[in-house]
Amino acid sequence: MRTRLQQHFLLSTLLTVACSPAVALAQTGWMACPVPATDKTSGVQRPGNLSPQAVYIEADTALFRSQGISTMSGNVYISQENNKLAADRASYEQPAGIVTASGGVSFSSNDMQVRSRELRYNLPQNTGEMLEAEYDLSQANGQGFSKRVIQESPDLTRLEDSTYTTCPVDKPDWSLNASTIYLDHHNQRGSARNATLKIRNVPIGYLPYFSFPLTDARKSGLLWPTMSTSERFGLQLSVPYYWNLAPNYDLTLTPSLLTNRGLQLGTEFRYLTEKHRGEASYVLLPNDSESDRDNRYYFNVKNDTHFGSKSSLQLKAEGVSDDQYFVDLGNSLEATSVVNLERRLEYRTSGQYWSFSTLLQDYQVLDGGIAPHARSPQLLVRYDPPQTYNGLNLDAETEYTNFTGSTTETNGTRLDFTTRASKRFSNEAAYVKPSLTLRHTQYQLDDADNTQIDRTVPSASVDAGLFFERNIKQGRYIQTLEPRLFYTYTPYRDQSNIPVFDSSARSLNYNQLFAENRFTGKDRIEDANHLTASVSTRVQSPEDGRELFRASIGQVYHFDERKVTLPDEAPLQGDRSELILEAAGEINPRTRLSTTAYWDSKENSVNAGEVRVNYKDDKKRILNVGYAQRKDNFESANLSLYVPVNEHWKAVGAWERDLQNDRNLETVIGAEYESCCWKTRVASRNYLLPDNNTRENAVFVEFELKGLGNFGSGTRDLLQNRVYGYE
């Protein structure tokens, strides 16, 4: 007959084991490893009327004594709070409070399960040991074996001759073996001595001392080394060291060996407080053996400070030692294509209907071009109250900017004031929105024929549209038809004597059809007398509002010649713009198509166009195909894919080709292997540098061990940037 004994003893947790950085594995999308066999303690239910601190004992036979040793045998079960213990035989000694168990000992808690041959534990002192213990960690999905587990104190556990892995314990692809592992539960940190990392039982690395957090909390120590190779800097081996200086700031030092260039040191400091957050990084190459330049460096500083809920200060400063730094030492096509680096300091604040900002801005130019003017400073005030005067919208903006720093162009100050009034008349089927804008600008210039220039330009526009909709496919979908007209009139003002501080021509696109001014900035105001006509249609699902298809077509009709230009540019000709067509939609739930075309109605030809097809299914197969061209300028095609070959292997690739010059711009070929406890990615990349002659070859290799992190190069980042939809 089963015997149940209840005593109000505080049965402390027998053992807590954690290993290697406890990674939030749900965020990494790993395959599921086989679940260990169900623990023996899961089949017994603790009575619900017991207090959590009560010790509940159940066994086939038992002899209980108030003093001395109580013995239990046959399916022994002991529970207290969230801890459960099962064994073939057990004894409890009073008043010492010592539990001894043997024969199929099984212990489980919220975080772990342990199976061992023998257990001896002192309940009052929270000390004891387990022999030949197999453990499973629910938090990190890890498991292992330890010949001897010693609970030295409530907060310190020692494991002797232990292994740890996140693979199936009977067939581990990788494991961490250590002579001794210490687990400091109070500080949530662990350390291993004489640690060996094994892949398929083959040792690949040894550390006499290895320190790690027991949770995902940060901890000082060496990070996994990274490796990459390039024709410009050879093999690069980096070994980062991370300092967790405080919970809210840290420092990472990264010494790197570049076999073709020398030793490099990188630093990164990050901080986060109630009002401030930011980071500062600095990379130094003292002696570059491939260049006559020494002390080559790169720095990047970012800071964001908030003064209450409506005021903030942002700092961004980036710079390099010389204009060839990214060409020689950049590790991506984007980096080698950088032409200038910005430094800016901006303060913003706002009230109920107004906002104010001040800006200091400068640039470091890397391509030998003309440096943009520095702003020192720019002051900007905006006023945007709610609707007044029977729905009339009024807003105003004032900007003062001091443009300095140019040695080839005119410097000076600019004061600009803009006010705008508009009102929208609308119902469910139509709207009309007339607007009036007045802009007044004053210039005070240095070293110019006219040191003081004034310009006042009014502008008027009317935006009108209709909405039609109908049910299609027996009401499964809704189709809309949305014609729109947009008229703008701005009189001509001669602006040829005004310098260009920050204006440029906007690229024509569908949204630009409805803009009053084709120039950015404030130095050029377009003379306009034109009408935009467009129509859009959409197909939507009424159940969830999902847009299944969208198509738009529009064109601008000019009634007067356009005279305002940028310096050294001829006035635009023609009484109409290109006809712009856009379409995007789902071919099926797995495939989406998007396209844009610029049609020259006079020449009956496509001046520019782009087509993209994106495919992704439930099996995570990805295929992206794209084509783009601009008449007499460029023509290119791109292809990227991600194809699972079987359960473990995936092939990945990306290709971009310059069709006009018959050459490859970039080619990436790679493979990915994934099991339930480790991944590896390998990629080869060949791409054209900005000089349009030199090609760069690089090889990327990355390993990721579930529960230990990843080491190698940034292969995953490369593939995510090159293959749309890759995760």
UniProtKB/TrEMBL annotation:
Location of the LptD C-terminal domain: 295-640
Locations listed in the record: Cell outer membrane
Domain Organic solvent tolerance-like N-terminal: 56-188
Family matches, as Pfam families: LptD, LptD_2, LptD_N
Keyword Membrane belongs to the record: yes
Keyword tRNA processing carried by entry: no
Main localization, broad class: membrane
Domain of life where this protein originates: Bacteria
Every LPS-assembly protein LptD central domain range: 193-280
Keywords: Cell outer membrane, Membrane, Signal
Subunit structure: Component of the lipopolysaccharide transport and assembly complex. Interacts with LptE and LptA.
Protein name, as recorded: LPS-assembly protein LptD
Organism: Thiothrix winogradskyi
